[in-house]
TrEMBL record:
It is found in: Endomembrane system; Membrane. The lineage of its organism: Eukaryota, Metazoa, Chordata, Craniata, Vertebrata. This is P2X purinoceptor. It is a multi-pass membrane protein. The chain crosses the membrane at residues 45-63.
Protein backbone atom coordinates (compact mmCIF):
# COMPACT_ATOMS: atom_id res chain seq x y z
CA UNK A 1 0.00 0.00 0.00
CA UNK A 2 2.89 2.33 0.81
CA UNK A 3 4.46 1.55 -2.58
CA UNK A 4 1.21 2.34 -4.43
CA UNK A 5 0.80 5.62 -2.54
CA UNK A 6 4.40 6.56 -3.32
CA UNK A 7 3.87 5.82 -7.04
CA UNK A 8 0.71 7.95 -7.12
CA UNK A 9 2.56 10.83 -5.50
CA UNK A 10 5.37 10.54 -8.03
CA UNK A 11 2.90 10.59 -10.95
CA UNK A 12 1.13 13.63 -9.46
CA UNK A 13 4.43 15.41 -8.90
CA UNK A 14 5.47 14.66 -12.48
CA UNK A 15 2.17 16.04 -13.82
CA UNK A 16 2.53 19.24 -11.79
CA UNK A 17 6.13 19.59 -12.99
CA UNK A 18 5.05 19.26 -16.64
CA UNK A 19 2.29 21.87 -16.17
CA UNK A 20 4.69 24.33 -14.52
CA UNK A 21 7.22 23.76 -17.27
CA UNK A 22 4.56 24.50 -19.90
CA UNK A 23 3.69 27.78 -18.14
CA UNK A 24 7.31 28.94 -18.16
CA UNK A 25 8.16 27.95 -21.74
CA UNK A 26 7.26 29.22 -25.20
CA UNK A 27 7.81 27.15 -28.34
CA UNK A 28 8.37 29.16 -31.50
CA UNK A 29 8.04 27.65 -35.00
CA UNK A 30 11.16 27.18 -37.08
CA UNK A 31 11.49 29.10 -40.35
CA UNK A 32 13.84 28.64 -43.30
CA UNK A 33 14.88 31.96 -44.84
CA UNK A 34 15.61 31.91 -48.59
CA UNK A 35 17.84 34.75 -49.76
CA UNK A 36 16.47 35.15 -53.28
CA UNK A 37 15.08 38.09 -55.25
CA UNK A 38 12.75 35.75 -57.19
CA UNK A 39 11.16 34.16 -54.15
CA UNK A 40 11.08 37.49 -52.33
CA UNK A 41 9.20 39.18 -55.20
CA UNK A 42 6.81 36.22 -55.40
CA UNK A 43 6.13 36.52 -51.67
CA UNK A 44 5.51 40.26 -51.95
CA UNK A 45 3.18 39.80 -54.92
CA UNK A 46 1.16 37.13 -53.13
CA UNK A 47 0.92 39.20 -49.94
CA UNK A 48 -0.27 42.19 -51.98
CA UNK A 49 -2.81 40.01 -53.79
CA UNK A 50 -4.21 38.64 -50.53
CA UNK A 51 -4.39 42.16 -49.02
CA UNK A 52 -6.28 43.47 -52.07
CA UNK A 53 -8.66 40.49 -51.96
CA UNK A 54 -9.37 41.08 -48.26
CA UNK A 55 -10.12 44.77 -48.92
CA UNK A 56 -12.43 43.87 -51.82
CA UNK A 57 -14.27 41.28 -49.73
CA UNK A 58 -14.71 43.76 -46.88
CA UNK A 59 -16.11 46.43 -49.20
CA UNK A 60 -18.25 44.17 -51.42
CA UNK A 61 -19.83 42.24 -48.57
CA UNK A 62 -19.79 45.30 -46.30
CA UNK A 63 -18.11 43.47 -43.46
CA UNK A 64 -17.16 46.80 -41.86
CA UNK A 65 -20.79 47.50 -40.94
CA UNK A 66 -23.10 46.32 -38.19
CA UNK A 67 -26.37 44.75 -39.39
CA UNK A 68 -29.96 45.09 -38.13
CA UNK A 69 -33.13 43.42 -39.44
CA UNK A 70 -36.09 45.51 -40.56
CA UNK A 71 -39.36 45.90 -38.61
CA UNK A 72 -42.29 46.62 -40.89
CA UNK A 73 -45.99 47.48 -41.19
CA UNK A 74 -48.05 47.61 -44.43
CA UNK A 75 -51.25 49.44 -45.40
CA UNK A 76 -52.98 49.29 -48.79
CA UNK A 77 -55.53 51.42 -50.57
CA UNK A 78 -57.22 50.29 -53.82
CA UNK A 79 -58.80 52.68 -56.30
CA UNK A 80 -61.06 51.80 -59.24
CA UNK A 81 -64.70 51.50 -60.37
CA UNK A 82 -66.21 49.26 -63.02
CA UNK A 83 -69.67 48.47 -64.47
CA UNK A 84 -70.35 44.75 -64.95
CA UNK A 85 -73.52 42.65 -65.11
CA UNK A 86 -75.73 45.75 -64.86
CA UNK A 87 -74.20 46.87 -61.56
CA UNK A 88 -71.51 49.19 -60.30
CA UNK A 89 -68.49 47.58 -58.56
CA UNK A 90 -66.50 49.89 -56.32
CA UNK A 91 -63.76 49.35 -53.72
CA UNK A 92 -66.11 48.09 -51.04
CA UNK A 93 -67.48 45.45 -53.43
CA UNK A 94 -64.34 43.78 -54.76
CA UNK A 95 -61.68 44.20 -52.03
CA UNK A 96 -61.35 42.11 -48.91
CA UNK A 97 -58.51 43.60 -46.81
CA UNK A 98 -56.33 41.29 -44.75
CA UNK A 99 -53.09 41.80 -42.82
CA UNK A 100 -50.18 42.44 -45.19
CA UNK A 101 -52.28 41.21 -48.13
CA UNK A 102 -55.01 42.35 -50.47
CA UNK A 103 -57.79 40.15 -51.86
CA UNK A 104 -59.25 41.34 -55.12
CA UNK A 105 -62.47 39.63 -56.21
CA UNK A 106 -62.49 38.73 -59.90
CA UNK A 107 -65.55 36.43 -60.02
CA UNK A 108 -68.28 34.93 -57.82
CA UNK A 109 -71.49 32.96 -57.81
CA UNK A 110 -74.03 32.62 -55.02
CA UNK A 111 -76.68 30.29 -53.62
CA UNK A 112 -79.29 32.65 -52.24
CA UNK A 113 -82.15 30.36 -51.14
CA UNK A 114 -80.41 28.80 -48.13
CA UNK A 115 -82.93 29.09 -45.32
CA UNK A 116 -83.64 27.65 -41.93
CA UNK A 117 -86.68 28.26 -39.81
CA UNK A 118 -85.91 29.61 -36.34
CA UNK A 119 -83.28 27.14 -34.93
CA UNK A 120 -84.65 24.32 -37.09
CA UNK A 121 -82.78 22.93 -40.06
CA UNK A 122 -83.97 21.99 -43.50
CA UNK A 123 -83.86 18.55 -45.08
CA UNK A 124 -82.70 18.19 -48.68
CA UNK A 125 -80.68 15.83 -50.87
CA UNK A 126 -76.92 16.34 -50.76
CA UNK A 127 -74.77 17.05 -53.79
CA UNK A 128 -74.08 13.81 -55.73
CA UNK A 129 -70.51 12.74 -55.00
CA UNK A 130 -69.35 9.12 -54.94
CA UNK A 131 -70.23 8.23 -51.35
CA UNK A 132 -73.49 10.22 -51.37
CA UNK A 133 -75.10 8.46 -54.35
CA UNK A 134 -77.57 5.80 -53.19
CA UNK A 135 -80.23 3.44 -54.46
CA UNK A 136 -82.09 2.68 -51.20
CA UNK A 137 -82.24 3.78 -47.59
CA UNK A 138 -79.81 1.01 -46.70
CA UNK A 139 -77.04 3.00 -48.43
CA UNK A 140 -77.51 5.95 -46.08
CA UNK A 141 -76.58 5.86 -42.42
CA UNK A 142 -78.44 8.05 -39.99
CA UNK A 143 -76.14 10.58 -38.26
CA UNK A 144 -73.23 9.92 -40.59
CA UNK A 145 -71.07 12.87 -41.64
CA UNK A 146 -68.74 12.81 -44.64
CA UNK A 147 -65.97 15.32 -45.16
CA UNK A 148 -67.40 16.18 -48.62
CA UNK A 149 -70.99 16.34 -47.45
CA UNK A 150 -72.90 19.54 -46.75
CA UNK A 151 -74.71 18.23 -43.65
CA UNK A 152 -75.64 15.25 -41.46
CA UNK A 153 -77.36 12.25 -43.08
CA UNK A 154 -80.89 11.33 -41.99
CA UNK A 155 -80.74 7.73 -43.25
CA UNK A 156 -83.14 8.28 -46.19
CA UNK A 157 -82.33 8.00 -49.90
CA UNK A 158 -84.16 10.69 -51.92
CA UNK A 159 -84.22 11.92 -55.50
CA UNK A 160 -81.66 14.61 -56.34
CA UNK A 161 -82.57 14.99 -60.02
CA UNK A 162 -83.68 12.85 -62.94
CA UNK A 163 -80.29 11.12 -63.00
CA UNK A 164 -79.23 10.60 -59.37
CA UNK A 165 -80.63 9.68 -55.98
CA UNK A 166 -78.59 10.86 -52.99
CA UNK A 167 -78.72 10.62 -49.24
CA UNK A 168 -80.85 13.16 -47.49
CA UNK A 169 -79.00 15.55 -45.14
CA UNK A 170 -79.92 18.04 -42.46
CA UNK A 171 -78.24 21.25 -43.73
CA UNK A 172 -78.65 24.71 -45.18
CA UNK A 173 -80.83 24.01 -48.20
CA UNK A 174 -80.51 23.80 -51.06
CA UNK A 175 -76.86 22.62 -50.90
CA UNK A 176 -74.23 24.40 -52.95
CA UNK A 177 -73.58 23.10 -56.46
CA UNK A 178 -70.04 22.28 -57.65
CA UNK A 179 -70.00 24.66 -60.55
CA UNK A 180 -67.03 26.02 -62.49
CA UNK A 181 -66.16 29.68 -62.06
CA UNK A 182 -67.64 32.10 -64.59
CA UNK A 183 -65.56 32.60 -67.71
CA UNK A 184 -64.61 35.23 -68.68
CA UNK A 185 -64.09 36.69 -65.21
CA UNK A 186 -66.71 39.06 -63.89
CA UNK A 187 -64.19 41.79 -63.04
CA UNK A 188 -61.84 41.25 -66.00
CA UNK A 189 -61.53 45.02 -66.37
CA UNK A 190 -60.08 45.36 -62.85
CA UNK A 191 -56.55 45.13 -64.22
CA UNK A 192 -56.70 48.93 -64.61
CA UNK A 193 -57.32 49.40 -60.88
CA UNK A 194 -54.47 50.84 -58.83
CA UNK A 195 -53.26 50.12 -55.33
CA UNK A 196 -51.26 52.41 -53.05
CA UNK A 197 -48.89 50.46 -50.74
CA UNK A 198 -47.72 52.36 -47.67
CA UNK A 199 -44.82 50.59 -45.95
CA UNK A 200 -43.36 51.93 -42.70
CA UNK A 201 -40.10 50.33 -41.55
CA UNK A 202 -37.75 50.81 -38.63
CA UNK A 203 -34.28 49.59 -37.67
CA UNK A 204 -34.50 49.48 -33.85
CA UNK A 205 -30.77 48.97 -33.31
CA UNK A 206 -30.01 52.26 -35.09
CA UNK A 207 -33.30 53.99 -34.12
CA UNK A 208 -33.92 54.83 -37.76
CA UNK A 209 -37.43 54.87 -39.33
CA UNK A 210 -38.47 55.55 -42.92
CA UNK A 211 -41.51 55.32 -45.23
CA UNK A 212 -41.52 53.95 -48.78
CA UNK A 213 -43.26 57.09 -50.04
CA UNK A 214 -40.66 59.58 -51.35
CA UNK A 215 -40.39 63.01 -49.77
CA UNK A 216 -41.36 64.62 -53.06
CA UNK A 217 -44.28 62.46 -54.11
CA UNK A 218 -46.15 62.76 -57.41
CA UNK A 219 -49.62 61.34 -56.69
CA UNK A 220 -50.30 60.84 -60.39
CA UNK A 221 -47.34 58.49 -60.91
CA UNK A 222 -47.63 54.76 -61.52
CA UNK A 223 -44.86 52.28 -60.76
CA UNK A 224 -42.53 51.52 -63.64
CA UNK A 225 -39.33 49.56 -63.17
CA UNK A 226 -37.41 51.98 -65.39
CA UNK A 227 -39.14 55.36 -65.20
CA UNK A 228 -40.71 55.42 -61.70
CA UNK A 229 -38.99 52.63 -59.66
CA UNK A 230 -39.85 54.29 -56.33
CA UNK A 231 -43.50 55.13 -56.99
CA UNK A 232 -45.71 53.28 -54.41
CA UNK A 233 -48.81 53.28 -56.67
CA UNK A 234 -49.16 50.09 -58.71
CA UNK A 235 -51.50 49.16 -61.56
CA UNK A 236 -52.85 45.63 -60.94
CA UNK A 237 -52.33 44.59 -64.54
CA UNK A 238 -48.68 45.68 -64.37
CA UNK A 239 -48.16 43.68 -61.16
CA UNK A 240 -49.45 40.48 -62.79
CA UNK A 241 -47.43 41.21 -65.93
CA UNK A 242 -44.23 41.69 -63.89
CA UNK A 243 -44.92 38.22 -62.43
CA UNK A 244 -44.95 36.85 -66.02
CA UNK A 245 -48.71 36.10 -65.93
CA UNK A 246 -51.76 37.12 -67.98
CA UNK A 247 -54.41 38.95 -65.99
CA UNK A 248 -57.34 37.72 -68.11
CA UNK A 249 -56.38 34.05 -67.55
CA UNK A 250 -55.45 34.40 -63.91
CA UNK A 251 -58.67 36.28 -63.02
CA UNK A 252 -60.84 33.24 -63.89
CA UNK A 253 -59.65 30.81 -61.20
CA UNK A 254 -57.70 33.33 -59.18
CA UNK A 255 -54.16 33.04 -57.84
CA UNK A 256 -51.63 34.40 -55.37
CA UNK A 257 -49.12 37.10 -56.31
CA UNK A 258 -46.25 38.13 -54.01
CA UNK A 259 -45.28 41.81 -53.91
CA UNK A 260 -41.81 41.86 -52.41
CA UNK A 261 -40.39 45.02 -50.88
CA UNK A 262 -36.68 44.70 -50.24
CA UNK A 263 -34.83 47.23 -48.10
CA UNK A 264 -31.04 47.21 -48.31
CA UNK A 265 -30.03 50.35 -46.44
CA UNK A 266 -26.62 51.91 -45.95
CA UNK A 267 -27.16 54.24 -42.99
CA UNK A 268 -23.67 55.76 -42.93
CA UNK A 269 -23.97 59.49 -43.33
CA UNK A 270 -21.27 59.73 -45.98
CA UNK A 271 -22.81 56.98 -48.17
CA UNK A 272 -26.47 57.11 -47.15
CA UNK A 273 -28.81 55.03 -49.32
CA UNK A 274 -32.13 53.64 -48.13
CA UNK A 275 -34.82 53.05 -50.75
CA UNK A 276 -37.08 50.07 -51.47
CA UNK A 277 -36.77 47.69 -54.39
CA UNK A 278 -39.94 45.99 -55.60
CA UNK A 279 -40.27 42.49 -57.02
CA UNK A 280 -43.22 40.39 -58.16
CA UNK A 281 -43.79 36.66 -58.69
CA UNK A 282 -46.59 34.10 -58.50
CA UNK A 283 -46.76 31.91 -55.40
CA UNK A 284 -49.38 29.25 -56.20
CA UNK A 285 -48.42 26.38 -58.51
CA UNK A 286 -49.90 26.68 -62.00
CA UNK A 287 -49.94 22.90 -62.56
CA UNK A 288 -51.00 21.49 -59.18
CA UNK A 289 -54.33 22.88 -57.92
CA UNK A 290 -53.86 26.44 -59.19
CA UNK A 291 -56.12 29.32 -58.24
CA UNK A 292 -57.50 30.99 -55.16
CA UNK A 293 -61.06 31.14 -53.82
CA UNK A 294 -62.96 31.34 -50.56
CA UNK A 295 -66.60 31.28 -49.33
CA UNK A 296 -68.52 33.70 -47.20
CA UNK A 297 -72.22 34.16 -46.33
CA UNK A 298 -74.61 36.99 -45.68
CA UNK A 299 -77.46 36.32 -43.24
CA UNK A 300 -80.98 37.78 -43.16
CA UNK A 301 -83.86 37.58 -40.67
CA UNK A 302 -87.27 37.43 -42.33
CA UNK A 303 -90.35 39.02 -40.69
CA UNK A 304 -91.82 35.57 -40.05
CA UNK A 305 -88.77 34.71 -37.95
CA UNK A 306 -87.10 32.63 -40.61
CA UNK A 307 -83.36 32.90 -41.02
CA UNK A 308 -81.96 33.08 -44.52
CA UNK A 309 -78.44 33.34 -45.92
CA UNK A 310 -76.80 33.97 -49.26
CA UNK A 311 -73.61 31.91 -49.75
CA UNK A 312 -70.92 33.29 -52.03
CA UNK A 313 -68.01 31.39 -53.53
CA UNK A 314 -65.54 34.04 -54.55
CA UNK A 315 -62.61 33.65 -56.96
CA UNK A 316 -59.96 36.30 -56.97
CA UNK A 317 -56.30 37.29 -56.95
CA UNK A 318 -54.62 37.63 -53.58
CA UNK A 319 -51.68 40.00 -53.36
CA UNK A 320 -49.31 39.18 -50.47
CA UNK A 321 -47.00 42.05 -49.52
CA UNK A 322 -43.73 40.62 -48.22
CA UNK A 323 -41.24 43.02 -46.62
CA UNK A 324 -37.66 42.07 -45.77
CA UNK A 325 -34.27 43.69 -45.66
CA UNK A 326 -31.36 44.86 -43.54
CA UNK A 327 -29.86 48.11 -42.37
CA UNK A 328 -26.10 48.57 -42.09
CA UNK A 329 -23.97 51.09 -40.29
CA UNK A 330 -20.20 51.37 -39.77
CA UNK A 331 -18.89 49.73 -36.61
CA UNK A 332 -15.18 49.55 -35.77
CA UNK A 333 -15.66 46.36 -33.73
CA UNK A 334 -17.22 44.56 -36.70
CA UNK A 335 -14.36 45.72 -38.93
CA UNK A 336 -11.67 44.47 -36.53
CA UNK A 337 -13.47 41.18 -35.98
CA UNK A 338 -13.95 40.41 -39.67
CA UNK A 339 -10.52 41.58 -40.79
CA UNK A 340 -8.94 39.65 -37.93
CA UNK A 341 -10.67 36.47 -39.03
CA UNK A 342 -9.37 36.97 -42.58
CA UNK A 343 -5.76 37.62 -41.60
CA UNK A 344 -5.34 33.85 -41.61
CA UNK A 345 -5.62 34.07 -45.42
CA UNK A 346 -2.04 35.37 -45.42
CA UNK A 347 -1.05 31.83 -44.47
CA UNK A 348 -2.02 30.88 -48.01
CA UNK A 349 1.07 32.76 -49.20
CA UNK A 350 3.44 30.41 -47.40
CA UNK A 351 1.41 27.40 -48.54
CA UNK A 352 1.46 28.60 -52.17
CA UNK A 353 5.23 29.17 -52.11
CA UNK A 354 5.72 25.74 -50.55
CA UNK A 355 3.68 24.18 -53.37
CA UNK A 356 5.73 26.06 -55.98
CA UNK A 357 9.00 24.94 -54.38
CA UNK A 358 7.70 21.37 -54.24
CA UNK A 359 6.82 21.49 -57.95
CA UNK A 360 10.25 22.91 -58.76
CA UNK A 361 11.93 20.26 -56.62
CA UNK A 362 10.24 17.44 -58.53
CA UNK A 363 10.68 18.97 -61.97
CA UNK A 364 13.76 19.07 -64.17
CA UNK A 365 15.37 21.46 -61.71
CA UNK A 366 15.41 18.85 -58.92
CA UNK A 367 19.15 18.34 -59.39
CA UNK A 368 19.91 22.01 -58.63
CA UNK A 369 21.93 22.90 -55.56
CA UNK A 370 19.13 25.13 -54.30
CA UNK A 371 16.63 22.27 -54.11
CA UNK A 372 19.07 20.01 -52.32
CA UNK A 373 20.07 22.66 -49.78
CA UNK A 374 16.45 23.73 -49.21
CA UNK A 375 15.23 20.19 -48.61
CA UNK A 376 18.09 19.54 -46.21
CA UNK A 377 17.39 22.74 -44.28
CA UNK A 378 13.62 22.42 -44.32
CA UNK A 379 12.98 18.86 -43.26
CA UNK A 380 14.34 16.97 -40.28
CA UNK A 381 13.45 13.31 -40.36
CA UNK A 382 12.88 11.76 -36.95
CA UNK A 383 13.21 7.99 -37.13
CA UNK A 384 13.01 5.23 -34.57
CA UNK A 385 16.40 5.31 -32.78
CA UNK A 386 16.51 1.51 -32.85
CA UNK A 387 16.36 1.49 -36.65
CA UNK A 388 19.10 4.01 -37.54
CA UNK A 389 22.84 4.60 -37.04
CA UNK A 390 24.92 7.71 -37.52
CA UNK A 391 28.46 7.64 -38.92
CA UNK A 392 31.05 10.39 -39.50
CA UNK A 393 34.09 10.14 -41.79
CA UNK A 394 37.10 12.40 -41.36
CA UNK A 395 37.22 13.11 -45.12
CA UNK A 396 33.51 14.14 -45.35
CA UNK A 397 32.07 17.39 -43.86
CA UNK A 398 28.78 15.89 -42.71
CA UNK A 399 27.13 13.18 -40.65
CA UNK A 400 25.50 10.29 -42.52
CA UNK A 401 22.34 8.48 -41.40
CA UNK A 402 22.24 4.74 -42.14
CA UNK A 403 19.01 2.74 -41.86
CA UNK A 404 18.85 -0.82 -40.58
CA UNK A 405 18.97 -3.66 -41.44
CA UNK A 406 22.38 -3.70 -43.12
CA UNK A 407 22.92 -5.81 -46.24
CA UNK A 408 26.63 -5.01 -46.49
CA UNK A 409 29.36 -3.55 -44.29
CA UNK A 410 28.57 -0.30 -42.53
CA UNK A 411 31.55 1.21 -44.34
CA UNK A 412 29.90 0.72 -47.76
CA UNK A 413 26.23 1.22 -46.76
CA UNK A 414 24.45 4.11 -48.48
CA UNK A 415 22.74 6.70 -46.28
CA UNK A 416 21.28 10.19 -46.09
CA UNK A 417 23.14 13.35 -45.21
CA UNK A 418 21.94 15.02 -42.03
CA UNK A 419 22.63 18.57 -40.87
CA UNK A 420 25.80 18.78 -38.80
CA UNK A 421 26.22 20.56 -35.50
CA UNK A 422 28.09 23.91 -35.71
CA UNK A 423 30.53 22.82 -33.01
CA UNK A 424 31.95 20.14 -35.29
CA UNK A 425 33.12 22.63 -37.89
CA UNK A 426 34.19 25.55 -35.75
CA UNK A 427 37.76 26.72 -35.49
CA UNK A 428 39.96 24.19 -33.77
CA UNK A 429 41.16 26.85 -31.40
CA UNK A 430 37.64 27.23 -29.96
CA UNK A 431 37.15 23.50 -29.38
CA UNK A 432 39.93 23.11 -26.86
CA UNK A 433 42.31 25.35 -24.95
CA UNK A 434 45.44 26.62 -26.61
CA UNK A 435 48.80 25.28 -25.64
CA UNK A 436 49.52 28.38 -23.57
CA UNK A 437 46.24 27.98 -21.70
CA UNK A 438 46.94 24.27 -21.30
CA UNK A 439 50.39 25.06 -19.98
CA UNK A 440 48.92 27.64 -17.61
CA UNK A 441 46.39 25.12 -16.40
CA UNK A 442 49.11 22.60 -15.87
CA UNK A 443 51.10 25.12 -13.85
CA UNK A 444 48.12 26.12 -11.72
CA UNK A 445 47.20 22.53 -11.02
CA UNK A 446 50.76 21.47 -10.33
CA UNK A 447 50.57 21.92 -6.51
CA UNK A 448 47.55 19.66 -6.37
CA UNK A 449 49.12 16.75 -8.21
CA UNK A 450 50.83 13.98 -6.33
CA UNK A 451 54.08 12.29 -7.23
CA UNK A 452 52.19 9.25 -8.47
CA UNK A 453 50.05 11.31 -10.86
CA UNK A 454 53.22 12.96 -12.26
CA UNK A 455 54.59 9.54 -13.05
CA UNK A 456 51.35 8.50 -14.71
CA UNK A 457 51.35 11.62 -16.88
CA UNK A 458 54.95 11.02 -17.93
CA UNK A 459 54.10 7.46 -18.84
CA UNK A 460 51.05 8.70 -20.77
CA UNK A 461 53.07 11.18 -22.83
CA UNK A 462 55.59 8.46 -23.63
CA UNK A 463 52.84 6.00 -24.56
CA UNK A 464 50.98 8.46 -26.85
CA UNK A 465 54.14 8.96 -28.91
CA UNK A 466 54.56 5.21 -29.54
CA UNK A 467 53.01 3.48 -32.59
CA UNK A 468 50.02 1.22 -32.12
CA UNK A 469 50.78 -2.17 -30.68
CA UNK A 470 50.75 -5.09 -33.08
CA UNK A 471 47.46 -6.25 -31.62
CA UNK A 472 45.76 -3.03 -32.64
CA UNK A 473 47.23 -2.73 -36.15
CA UNK A 474 46.87 -6.07 -37.79
CA UNK A 475 48.94 -6.73 -40.91
CA UNK A 476 45.90 -8.43 -42.46
CA UNK A 477 43.85 -5.24 -42.86
CA UNK A 478 40.20 -5.94 -43.86
CA UNK A 479 39.02 -4.82 -47.32
CA UNK A 480 36.57 -2.30 -45.92
CA UNK A 481 39.34 -0.46 -43.97
CA UNK A 482 40.81 2.66 -45.62
CA UNK A 483 43.28 3.76 -42.91
CA UNK A 484 45.07 0.47 -42.14
CA UNK A 485 44.28 0.55 -38.45
CA UNK A 486 40.96 -1.33 -38.22
CA UNK A 487 40.43 -4.76 -36.73
CA UNK A 488 38.70 -7.52 -38.76
CA UNK A 489 35.19 -8.55 -37.73
CA UNK A 490 32.34 -10.59 -39.21
CA UNK A 491 29.56 -8.27 -38.04
CA UNK A 492 28.37 -5.76 -40.64
CA UNK A 493 27.56 -3.07 -38.08
CA UNK A 494 31.16 -3.17 -36.75
CA UNK A 495 32.81 -2.87 -40.17
CA UNK A 496 33.44 0.88 -40.11
CA UNK A 497 36.61 2.91 -40.75
CA UNK A 498 37.32 6.52 -39.87
CA UNK A 499 37.70 7.38 -43.57
CA UNK A 500 35.59 6.96 -46.69
CA UNK A 501 38.68 6.90 -48.96
CA UNK A 502 42.28 5.73 -48.47
CA UNK A 503 44.37 8.01 -46.25
CA UNK A 504 45.85 8.70 -42.86
CA UNK A 505 44.03 7.38 -39.78
CA UNK A 506 42.42 9.93 -37.50
CA UNK A 507 44.01 8.24 -34.49
CA UNK A 508 47.42 9.55 -35.61
CA UNK A 509 46.29 13.19 -35.47
CA UNK A 510 47.34 15.41 -32.56
CA UNK A 511 43.71 16.43 -32.01
CA UNK A 512 42.66 12.83 -31.42
CA UNK A 513 45.48 12.47 -28.92
CA UNK A 514 44.56 15.67 -27.09
CA UNK A 515 40.73 15.63 -27.26
CA UNK A 516 40.00 11.92 -26.93
CA UNK A 517 42.97 10.08 -25.39
CA UNK A 518 44.59 12.68 -23.16
CA UNK A 519 44.44 11.38 -19.59
CA UNK A 520 44.76 14.91 -18.28
CA UNK A 521 41.75 16.11 -20.32
CA UNK A 522 39.60 13.14 -19.32
CA UNK A 523 40.46 13.46 -15.64
CA UNK A 524 39.52 17.14 -15.72
CA UNK A 525 36.18 16.23 -17.30
CA UNK A 526 35.56 13.58 -14.62
CA UNK A 527 36.39 16.05 -11.87
CA UNK A 528 34.14 18.68 -13.48
CA UNK A 529 31.24 16.24 -13.38
CA UNK A 530 32.04 14.88 -9.91
CA UNK A 531 34.61 16.86 -7.90
CA UNK A 532 34.95 14.00 -5.39
CA UNK A 533 35.71 11.20 -7.84
CA UNK A 534 38.55 8.93 -6.76
CA UNK A 535 41.15 9.00 -9.58
CA UNK A 536 43.13 6.20 -7.90
CA UNK A 537 40.18 3.77 -8.04
CA UNK A 538 40.90 0.53 -9.87
CA UNK A 539 37.75 1.06 -11.96
CA UNK A 540 38.89 4.49 -13.21
CA UNK A 541 39.93 3.04 -16.59
CA UNK A 542 36.34 2.05 -17.38
CA UNK A 543 35.11 5.56 -16.59
CA UNK A 544 37.84 7.16 -18.69
CA UNK A 545 37.19 4.77 -21.60
CA UNK A 546 33.48 5.63 -21.59
CA UNK A 547 34.29 9.33 -21.36
CA UNK A 548 36.71 8.99 -24.28
CA UNK A 549 33.88 7.51 -26.37
CA UNK A 550 31.69 10.49 -25.51
CA UNK A 551 34.49 12.93 -26.28
CA UNK A 552 34.89 11.36 -29.70
CA UNK A 553 31.13 11.55 -30.38
CA UNK A 554 31.00 15.20 -29.35
CA UNK A 555 34.06 16.01 -31.45
CA UNK A 556 33.07 14.17 -34.64
CA UNK A 557 29.23 14.34 -34.45
CA UNK A 558 28.87 17.78 -32.89
CA UNK A 559 26.38 16.85 -30.16
CA UNK A 560 25.73 14.37 -27.41
CA UNK A 561 22.20 13.97 -28.82
CA UNK A 562 23.50 11.34 -31.26
CA UNK A 563 25.46 9.48 -28.61
CA UNK A 564 23.16 6.45 -28.40
CA UNK A 565 23.13 5.86 -32.19
CA UNK A 566 26.54 7.25 -33.16
CA UNK A 567 28.93 4.52 -34.34
CA UNK A 568 32.62 4.87 -33.44
CA UNK A 569 34.99 3.54 -36.18
CA UNK A 570 36.88 0.34 -35.49
CA UNK A 571 40.31 2.01 -35.50
CA UNK A 572 39.25 4.68 -32.98
CA UNK A 573 37.42 2.18 -30.82
CA UNK A 574 40.40 -0.14 -30.53
CA UNK A 575 42.83 2.76 -29.99
CA UNK A 576 40.68 3.89 -27.02
CA UNK A 577 40.46 0.31 -25.74
CA UNK A 578 44.23 -0.15 -25.99
CA UNK A 579 44.81 3.12 -24.14
CA UNK A 580 42.27 2.40 -21.39
CA UNK A 581 41.88 -1.41 -21.45
CA UNK A 582 39.25 -3.35 -19.60
CA UNK A 583 40.32 -6.08 -17.28
CA UNK A 584 40.19 -9.38 -19.13
CA UNK A 585 39.67 -7.59 -22.50
CA UNK A 586 36.09 -8.88 -22.63
CA UNK A 587 34.35 -5.97 -24.32
CA UNK A 588 30.60 -6.36 -24.52
CA UNK A 589 29.47 -3.77 -27.01
CA UNK A 590 30.23 -2.22 -30.33
CA UNK A 591 29.90 1.41 -29.29
CA UNK A 592 30.34 1.58 -25.50
CA UNK A 593 30.70 -1.17 -22.93
Amino acid sequence: QFSKASTSQEVLAMGVSVCLEGLTRYDSPKYVRIQSVTWGCLKGFLYLTVAVCICCIVMIFRLHQEVDEVNSSVRTSVKGVTFTDNRIWDTAEYTIPMQASLNLMSGQYSTSIDTSVAFLTCLCPTYPFTKAICSSDDDCKNGSVDILSNGIQTGRCVVYNATFKTCEVNAWCPVQHMEKPPEPAVLRSSEDFTVLIKNNIKFPKFNHAILNIPTIFNKSCTYNKTIFPLCPIFRLGDIVQEANQKFSEMAVKGGIIAIEIKWDCNLDSWFYDCSPKYGFHRLDDEKIMPGFYFRYAKYYKLPQGEEQRTLYKVYGIRFDVIVFGTGRKFNIIELIKNVGSMISYFGLVASTIEVVIWVVSYSNCSTSAFCKIYNRKKYETVLNPRQVMYVSFVDEPHVTLIKKPLKTSLQHAQGDIVESHPVKFCDAGSCCPSESNEHRDNEESEPMRTTESNKNDDNEEHELRQPLRPGASSPGCPKWCCCGKCQPTQKYHEQLCCRRKKGQCITTSPWFQQLVLSSHTLKKALLYKNPFVDLTDGNINNQMRHLAYRQYVHWRFGSFDLEDRAVIPSCCRWKIRDTYPKEGNNYTGFKME
